[in-house]
Design goal:
This protein is α/β, with parallel strands linked by helices. The protein has a domain of about 200 residues: Rossmann fold. Helices cover about 40% and strands about 25% of the residues. It has ten helices and twelve strands. The strands form three sheets. Strands 3, 4, 5, 6, 7, 10, 11 and 12 form an eight-stranded mixed β-sheet that branches. It is globular. Bound molecules: S-adenosylmethionine.
């Protein structure tokens, strides 16, 4: 029963862009970035290892990875679990996942191309663990969380961004140079999220509480070094990944060059992220 704040309606109001990313269908958005995303995330596996360790899987357990992407987590999960169901709406991301499976000789991942919004409870069997990592591109959050809870036998784990200083200056840079929107913090969008609402993880946490699920919540720091052969390579990648228009090339070049240091093979950008883990074990009180 919603109180003064209706968290699900607040999510809908502030995340409507999650459905249509910058005017494009979210699946098409990820289709077009799949190769680049895969190249980047597969080079940096340390964070994935620590995420997987948190799940404490046993070899007899099954995992449902909602929004699995190119398998950054599904691949290491499959080495520990009995099997993994990797669901993603993007054919391009799943194609990369399948190539990664073949390259690494992994056969116990079943890929399902579908949006979580369109999944009905009777078409998927319950899994021991249900996971979502930066993949809640959903309009009706309550429905999405209800399905995750219903399909989990042991636990649900949601990794999400803190919406805080995810990358020094990056949000501000994109707001000024891509979205062309004001920088007063009152308008603007970042990956489909409006800047006026509370941080996404607070909405998720509070909505779960309203549903009768008292989840655990943890802030986690994640550092990574991203290597580039040259500034040109970095500019090309960032343009593609973040949809920076051609006329902003110079600004992007300056922004990136200020953040990179020389290393043995070219340039290195140190990135620091703050992730939130929201999790709950099954067997407590059932959702309202
Ligand atoms: C940032 S990537 C994260 C991929 C992976 N979970 C990881 O941590 O590396 C987001 C992925 O979630 C998928 N996704 C987002 N919302 C989804 C939804 N409602 N249904 C299915 N897939 C979704 C996207 O297609 C994309 O592949």
């Amino acid at each position: 029963m919603p109180g003064i704040i209706n968290w699900n309606e607040l999510w809908k109001a502030t995340h409507a862009g999650g459905f249509h990313h910058h005017g494009k269908d979210l699946a098409a958005h990820w289709d077009s970035r799949a190769r680049l995303f895969n190249k980047r995330v597969m080079k940096n596996r340390e964070w994935a290892k620590s995420q997987v360790a948190i799940l404490g899987l046993t070899p007899s357990e099954t995992v449902l990875d909602m929004g699995a992407g190119t398998g950054r987590l599904a691949l290491p999960l499959a080495r520990q679990a009995k099997s993994v169901t990797a669901l993603d709406q993007s054919a391009g991301m799943l194609a990369c996942l399948q190539e990664n499976m073949a390259a690494e000789g992994i056969g116990n991942i079943r890929c399902i191309q579908k949006s979580w919004n369109d999944v009905s409870l009777d078409e998927l069997e319950p899994h021991d663990v249900v996971l979502s990592s930066n993949s809640l591109g959903v309009y009706d959050l309550k429905e999405a969380l209800t399905k995750m809870d219903a399909l989990a036998k042991r636990a649900v784990y949601i990794f999400t961004f803190s919406d805080g200083k995810r990358d020094d200056g990056l949000r501000q840079f994109l707001r000024e140079n891509r979205d062309g929107e004001s920088t007063d913090g009152k308008r603007g969008s970042w990956h489909g999220r409006s800047e006026i609402g509370p941080a996404s993880y607070l909405v998720i946490y509070n909505l779960l509480a309203e549903m009768g699920i008292l989840a655990d919540i943890k802030m986690m720091n994640w550092q990574s070094d991203v290597h580039y052969a040259s500034l040109d390579e970095a500019v090309a990648e960032w343009k593609e990944m973040h949809e920076v228009p051609d006329e902003k090339d110079q600004q992007l070049r300056e922004f990136l060059s200020q953040r990179m240091t020389k290393d043995g093979s070219g340039l290195c950008m140190h990135r620091s992220h703050r992730q939130v883990l929201i999790s709950w074990q099954k067997g407590g009180s059932s959702p309202a």
